[in-house]
Amino acid sequence: MTQEKQAEKLQAIKGVRDILPPESALWNRVEQTARDVFATYNFREIRLPVIEHSELFARSVGIETDIVLKEMYTFPDPTVVADRNFLAGMRALRDLHDAYQKNRGYTIARAKEYVAAAFAGLSEGIERAASRLTSLRPEATASVVRAYIEHGMHTLPGDVKLYYIGPMFRRERPQKGRYRQFYQIGAEVLGQSDSPNIDAEVVEMLMAYLERLGLRGTTLYVNSIGNAECRPKYIEVLRQALQSVSARMCEDCQGRAITNPLRVLDCKVEADQPIIEKLPRITDHLCDACRAHFSAFQEQLKQRGIAYEINWRLVRGLDYYMRTTFEITAPGLGAQNAICGGGRYDGLVELLGGPPAKGIGFAIGTDRLVLSLQEVGAGNMKAERKDVTVPVTGNALKADVGKVFIAWMGTASYPTAVKLARRLRAENFIVELPPEETKLKKSLGLADRLGAHYAVLLGEDELASGSYVLRRLADGEQKKLPEPELVGYLKSDRRP
Ligand code: AMP
């Protein structure tokens, strides 16, 4: 082998790359900021395996999706090769072949016997092989849900709020911002409530994170893709509409028009765009409950001062999404400009064999986020070098001595509760804000079980007077304070 050939052999695999210093310091800042900001929303980290049974993704992401059909790195469990039934089947086949070759004792009846034995052994062996296929994870929501079910996390108090950071693997065509090993920072909320307030708080957390990183020029797109009641009806309407136009569309769309009409809306082919623009829109076909959910979500975004655009074509590629979907694009990335995708997936927990539960989450593409930060000048490498020596605990640790539960009562007090939560989070307090109105006694019980240090009681009286009741949970001591003093008091109490 020539030296050149040898050197070629030792390069990293296509679509996979090294992240070198000083860029790695920027990665650390990006990840640490996520930990700090997510902690203030009372999210905690889950560390997940990189390999899972392939079936997990087939059942959740969906058997018809590109990810599962074409992009997963899947391999058999080596022990399957030695499976007893599989080997017995192979032996029966070999015996049949031998008998045939040597023309010894070969009769149709014997052949039938051999074939039947071979078939039984092989099919059982193959069945086992299939059930033991393993994949490198292409995404992590499915794993979070699997872990939620496996560890009975539905019995934990309140909503379960988790975040993860790590590599994902998809065999896509590599290009700028698209890799075969890429990284995601994701978060999920699992629980009993599907309140649009949760959707809005999750988006608020995302935007607060991007702001803290100094990323400017992002656009948030939102949509609702309906639920099990209205989505299938819309898909039928879409399928009908596509019948008369799909012949004029690209080859992929012609296939999608039959197998998965929603995916037509993802098509980027120039010539198809005028046709797609005229297709029926899901926003006009939502059932009453989904329409109310979508408008309440938007109302919440407005109240929180979060700018957004509706993109009716935002259907997301994965089967498990329903109702709210969202995506964030960032500047400087070219064609692959989506840095984050997310949505609601009520029903996924049940689909994977767990108890009824609702869920919503997002995944940020770290590679693209870092690229965009560098493009907008917020990823200054010189500054990063200093960062490396800063201990990684920082804010997250400080926040840990200040967990505040906001017990709001009466819908009128919710906007004030949202503002107070944001104010306290900006000061690195961990804040739990129930998405739905809860009776005071229940709220205080939950605050206690969540390990909160303080509860802020916020009802109509407090709203009218502008002073809120601050209750120390350890001894029940209460004081009434106007907002600025309340924040100041909590800050001074936090200092050792
Ligand atoms: P998804 O899990 O497909 O919703 O993707 C969420 C985010 O992950 C996207 O918005 C991208 O930022 C990022 N992402 C997905 N696939 C890749 C890839 N192959 N390479 C780099 N980033 C990716």
Written description of the protein model:
45% of the residues lie in helices and 18% in strands. The protein is of the alpha+beta class. Strand 12, helix 17 and strand 13 form a beta-alpha-beta unit. Bound molecules: adenosine monophosphate (AMP). Adenosine monophosphate binds next to strand 6, strand 10, strand 11 and helix 14.
Q: What would the CATH topology of the largest domain be?
A: BirA Bifunctional Protein, domain 2
What number of domains?
3
Structural class: alpha+beta
Strand content: 15-25%
Ligands in the structure? adenosine monophosphate
Number of helices: 20
Characterize the main sheet: 8 strands, mixed
Based on CA atoms alone, the radius of gyration comes out at: 27 Å
**CATH H-level name of the largest domain... which superfamily?**
Bira Bifunctional Protein, Domain 2
Averaged pLDDT, please? 89
Q: Assign an overall shape.
A: globular
| CATH first level of the largest domain | Alpha Beta
Helix content: 40-55%
Low-confidence spans: 385-400
Distance between the termini: 66 Å
CATH-level-2 architecture of the largest domain:
2-Layer Sandwich
Number of strands: 16
| Spatial strand arrangement across the major sheet | 1-5-6-11-10-9-7-8
Which helices and strands appear, and what pairs or packs with what?
Blueprint: H1 3-9, H2 23-40, E1 44-45, E2 51-53, H3 54-60, H4 66-71, E3 74-75, H5 84-102, H6 108-131, E4 134-136, H7 141-150, E5 160-169, E6 181-191, H8 196-213, E7 219-224, H9 230-245, H10 251-259, H11 273-277, H12 288-303, E8 309-310, E9 322-329, E10 338-344, H13 348-351, E11 358-365, H14 366-375, H15 381-387, H16 394-399, E12 403-408, H17 414-426, E13 430-432, H18 440-449, E14 454-458, H19 460-465, E15 467-472, E16 478-482, H20 483-494
Parallel strand pairs: 1-5, 7-8, 12-13, 12-14
Antiparallel strand pairs: 2-4, 3-4, 5-6, 6-11, 7-9, 9-10, 10-11, 14-15, 15-16
Helix pairs in contact: 2-8, 2-15, 5-6, 8-12
The protein binds adenosine monophosphate.
